[in-house]
Amino acid sequence: MSDKDQYAVFGSPIKHSKSPRIHAFFAQQTGQILDYKSVLVPADAFEVQLKSFLDGGGRGLNCTVPLKEVAWAYADKKTERAQLSKAVNTLILQDDGSLLGDNTDGIGLVTDLQKNNKIQLKDKRILILGAGGASRGIIGPIQDELPQSIVIANRTVEKAQVLVDEFSCRGLVSASGYAELSGLSFDLIINATSASLSGDLPPLGSGLLNNQGCCYDLAYANEPTAFVSWSQQQGALKSLDGLGMLIEQAAEAFYVWRGVRPNTSELIELLEAER
Ligand code: NDP
User: Fold this and answer.
1) Structural domains in the chain?
2) Using the 8-state DSSP alphabet, how is residue 206 labeled?
3) What digits encode the pLDDT tens for the residues 35-65?
C-alpha cells in the first residue's frame, strides 16, 4: 500500500480524462500529498474495482460515464445535492469506513457561470436542453440561485416531464418539446444534451435568445462545439463550453476530500491556452 492518500476516477471510456492532470495541479498548488489516477471500469466491474481501490488506500473517488448511477446506488449515505440528482460523481471515504456520495457537477456549472464568467442566474429565464443525467445534476443547484423560471426541452418530452415532476416543488420549471419553444425567449440557454459529442445540434429555431443573452454547452472540445457556433450566430453575449465546469466540479471534489479549496483560475487559463 502506498503511503500517499489515493484518489482516482473510474469510468469507461477513461483514456481521454483530464481529471488526473487537474487533481495533480490542485495537489501541487495546495501542497497536498496525494496520488490521483484514472482507471478503466465498466459498470459490471465497479464493485470489485472499488473494493480493491479502498484496500489499496483509496480515500476518494470520482465516477464518470457510465458509473454515476451505479455509484449513487452504492453510496452508504448521500449529500442533499447527490440525493436530488440521483447520480454520484464523488465518493468520500468516511472515518467509520462508510462511503458518502456527493455530486459536484451542478455546483461546478454554477461556479463557472457566476464566479468565472459573471453570468448571474437570479431572476433569469433559463432554457435547459436535454433531460439526461447531466440535466438532473444541474437543475437543483441552478434553482438554488433563484432564477425566474426554467424550461427543460427534450426530444423525448416525457423525460423532461419526469424532471419537472421531481423539481417543481423547488421553483418554477416546465417541460417542452423543441417545436413548442417557438415564440419563447431566454436569458440563458444551457445545452445539457450529448448532441455536441457527435457534432450535432438540437433542433433550435432562431429568436430563442434574448438580447444580451448567453449560452453554455456542458460538452467541451478544442474547437467550438456545434452549439457554441449556433450561439455565436445568434449573437449571444457569451458563448461558453464546459471546460470551466469540468475544472470547477473537480475543485469542489478536491475541497470535499481535502478541506482545501484550490484556486481554479490559473488552471482554466492554462487549459484554455492549450486549445
Ligand atoms: P445522457 O445520455 O444522460 O442524456 C443525453 C441527452 O441528450 C438526452 O436528453 C437526449 O435526448 C439528448 N440528445 C442526445 N442527442 C441529441 C440530439 N442529436 N438532439 C437533441 N437531443 C439529443 O447524457 P448526460 O446527461 O450524461 O451528458 C450530457 C452532456 O453533458 C454530455 O455532452 C456530457 O459530456 C456533458 N457533461 C459535461 C460535464 C462537464 O463537467 N463539463 C459533466 C457532465 C456531463 P433523448 O432523451 O430524447 O434521447
Assistant:
1) 5-103+245-274 (3.40.50.10860), 106-241 (3.40.50.720)
2) S
3) 999 999 999 999 999 999 999 999 999 999 9
How far is the centre of ligand 1, averaged over its atoms, from the C-alpha of 134 (Å)?
A: 7
Give the count of beta carbons closer than 10 Å to the beta carbon of residue 51.
Answer: 11
- Measured over the CA atoms of residue 55, residue 58, residue 62 and residue 68, the dihedral's sign is positive
Distance 235 CA to ligand 1 centre (A): 24
Among all residues, which ones are annotated catalytic? 68
Residue 223 pairs in a beta bridge with none
Mutate to test the pocket of ligand 1, among 85, 138, 193 (most ligand atoms within 8 A of CB): 193
Q: For 43, which DSSP code?
A: G
Nearest ligand 1 atom to the CA of 134 is 25
Task: Give me the helices (H) in 144-240, please.
Answer: 157-167, 226-233
pTM above 0.85, yes or no: yes
Q: How many angstroms does the Cα of residue 131 sit away from the middle of ligand 1?
A: 7
